[in-house]
Amino acid sequence: MKHLLFVLMLFGTFECMAQKNVAAGKWVQLFNGKDLKDWRVKITGYPLNENYGNTFRVKDGKMQVNYDQYTSFDERYGHIFYKQKYSAYLLAMEYRFIVDQVKGGPGWALRNSGAMIHGQDPTTMGLKQDFPISIEVQLLGGNGKDERHTANLCTPGTNVVMDGKLFTAHCIDSRSKTYHGDQWVRVEVLVLGDSLVRHMVNGETVLEYQKPQIGGGNVINYDPAVKKDGQLLKEGYISLQSESHPVEFRKVELFNLQPYMNNPKKLKEVLQGLAAAKTKPVKGATTK
């Protein structure tokens, strides 16, 4: 871990991330804009790949989480998992919240979704398990009046190290701006195995932590065999949430950094190249 952190320190805070390809063919489009063939759905109370109520769908070229076929939410928390796991990468998503929260959704889930990283294999989730054991990059939308940060950290069945200490609380706010209404927001997550995770919003670093690991609570009905407290999370699956408020994603892409993890010099060059791409604010975004 030390040499990876040293690499990051060599070129600054990595404030500006890429919106354009740094090298041809390096960005992987996890969402192809057409269908969900590379994704697997797990909704609480239903077997893997039973997409209750057509919750996850593609509409107008966007991946959408929608509840128009629900009469009530009834704690049907869901996740859609990309087909393969990753260890070191830059993940980028562009999302926005739409219409109203479904009837029966909890108050805390208003304009609330998330991207789970280093997640457990969905085939190991219990039928009634609500969340995968994972690290959550919480995505929040403004309620129109209050300050409400996005790209926060939540820890379902996990802990992290922050400022040199084990962080065991369930969630912590980032220092992002607030994004009200239906505007698009770009969130990026730099993940370097079990060494470092960094959250960025529209090009600004808003949160950082180290040593993601299994531990803590906030997950129910899981198989105890998969929860090995204290085990560092070096890799895992990426998933997006359904938590009762409709949301859509127009981009989900990933730059794989794993090939450079054993070559600090090359990793530094690649990260510098990404930083040099200079993220621009997402078109149409306003903040408060």
Summarize the structure.
With 288 residues, this protein is mostly beta strands. It is built from 2 helices and 17 strands. Helix 1 (2-10) packs across helix 2.
Structure in words:
By secondary structure, the chain is mainly beta. The protein has a single domain (2-276), classed as Jelly Rolls (Sandwich), CATH 2.60.120.560. The protein has helices spanning 2-10, 264-276; strands at residues 27-29, 39-43, 56-59, 62-65, 78-82, 88-97, 112-119, 135-140, 152-154, 158-162, 165-167, 171-172, 185-192, 196-201, 204-214, 237-242, 247-256. Strands 1, 3, 4, 6, 10, 11, 13, 14, 15 and 17 form a 10-stranded antiparallel sheet that branches. It has a 7-stranded antiparallel sheet with strand order 2-5-16-7-8-9-12, with no helix packed on it. The longest helix is centred in the C-terminal third of the chain and has 13 residues, at 264-276. It is globular and about 55 Å long. Mean pLDDT is 91; it is low at 10-21.
Q: In DSSP terms, counting alpha (H) and pi (I) runs of 4 or more, how many helices?
A: 2
Detail the poorly predicted runs: 10-21
Instruction: Kindly identify the CATH topology.
Output: Jelly Rolls
- Proportion of strand residues: 25-35%
Helix content: under 10%
Summarize the biggest pleated sheet. Answer: 10 strands, antiparallel
State the total count of DSSP E strands. 17
Oligomer: single chain
Quick one: CATH class?
A: Mainly Beta
Report, as a whole number of angstroms, the end-to-end distance: 37 Å
Rg over CA atoms: 18 Å
Structural class: mainly beta
What series of H and E elements makes up the topology? HEEEEEEEEEEEEEEEEEH
Principal-axis shape: globular
Q: Which CATH architecture?
A: Sandwich
